[in-house]
């Protein structure tokens, strides 16, 4: 019976097995830890490489315009210059200074994004108003480039179409794409606008008839410092940061960006953003069904505190026919200051989310100056609990954005007559 295992033998074997298992599992943990450490080292090395190449790229990009500025400034200091030479040198200095400024903006933007410090401030964006503003800005450029026609093509024609997003960032993305479109197009047209793809997605576009982009570069142009080089000579200047910034901004707004292009024919850049169809309340339907009324408030004065241009323009356009006198504050602090200076304001439309001083703080201070002044709060529909909060703060009314023109007029009529 030499092979018979006693109870002690079995216990001993179990102990040995447990011990082996322990060693094995701690060995595995060690391997995992080692792998993790190797990965981290590689990531640090990669990010260091990226930082080094970022710095090398940057110093090159900064030096180029700076050298021009220094060079032409020296020439300008020279003797016997004709007026046309002086003008030529000054123009070089101005244009290179602008390039430098643009570059610094790009660097600040990309660093903020990388550090996770870029803030997204979602609010109601009246898309047609916003695109109209961009069109006006870029029309000036297209006037200098006589061979290029600039076209705006919005899908919906209604002024009050809005999405819940960040208008500042949308403008930044369009500005980058349109800057490029003008840079890489010699003649033809540049068109921008949007289409509604489905109930949840809006798709913006910037189309040009420029040099185009080879298919194998469709993806890499969105990476930092990557350019689709068309020729050995560097015909187009640029840092290669604009599209990388645009891509990050689109992603922060929960959208996608891509390009379709044919070399020598042109390119179309697309980006999507989410949007939800806005639930219209019964009160609003009732107000919109009212027979068109003509209001006359030419003796009345309204202060509108609103930081976003396109939102202010929208309210201004809605109220134009009433001949009401409008005052505008760009933030809460300005609103308080205006109330101190102007003592015959009949009503205030107060946006709640504003920079420098928000609507609630402004209402508190304004009520100290004039406790009877009627204030109506303007708030984004996504912010829960704002209605109670604004009424508690002393507002007589509350309007949710997107503002429906007829509703705004009928509410104001209650307090202005
Ligand atoms: P850059 O400062 O070089 O213009 P971007 O990041 O804005 O940097 O663009 C990256 C590259 O993508 C550009 O260098 C160019 O090769 C290509 N590109 C961007 N927009 C266009 C366009 N509208 N038409 C042709 N090529 C374009």
Q: Top keywords for this entry?
A:
417 residues; alpha/beta; Helix Hairpins; Heat Shock Protein 90; Rossmann fold; 3 domains; 5-stranded mixed β-sheet; 5-stranded parallel β-sheet; 11 helices; 12 strands; 50% helix; 17% strand; binds adenosine-5'-diphosphate
Ions, cofactors and other bound molecules: adenosine-5'-diphosphate
Mean pLDDT: 85
By secondary-structure content and strand pairing, the structural class works out as alpha/beta
Assembly category: single chain
Q: Beta fraction of the residues?
A: 15-25%
Q: How many structurally independent domains? A: 3
Shape verdict: extended
Text of the CATH class of the largest domain: Alpha Beta
How far the N terminus sits from the C terminus, by CA atoms, comes to: 113 Å
Parts with pLDDT < 50 across at least 5 consecutive residues: 230-234, 278-285
Radius of gyration, Cα only, in angstroms?
Answer: 30 Å
β-strand number: 12
Number of helices: 11
Could you describe the 3D structure shown?
There is one protein chain. The protein has 3 domains: 7-115, Helix Hairpins (Orthogonal Bundle); 123-274, Histidine kinase-like ATPase, C-terminal domain (Heat Shock Protein 90), CATH 3.30.565; 292-416, 3-Layer(aba) Sandwich (Rossmann fold), CATH 3.40.50.2300. Strand 10, helix 9 (359-369) and strand 11 (375-380) form a beta-alpha-beta unit. The chain has 11 helices and 12 strands. It has a 5-stranded mixed β-sheet with strand order 2-4-5-7-6. A 5-stranded parallel β-sheet has the order 9-8-10-11-12, sandwiched between helices. A two-stranded antiparallel sheet has the order 1-3. Helix 8 (332-341) runs parallel beside helix 9 (359-369). The chain is α/β, with parallel strands linked by helices. It has helices spanning 7-76, 83-114, 127-144, 167-183, 242-252, 282-289, 309-319, 332-341, 359-369, 386-392, 405-416, and strands at 123-126, 148-153, 162-165, 188-196, 201-208, 257-262, 266-274, 301-305, 325-329, 347-351, 375-380, 397-401. Bound molecules: adenosine-5'-diphosphate. The site of adenosine-5'-diphosphate has 18 residues, from helix 4 and helix 5. Adenosine-5'-diphosphate is lined by residues 180-181, 184, 208, 210-211, 213, 221, 227-228, 238-244, 267.
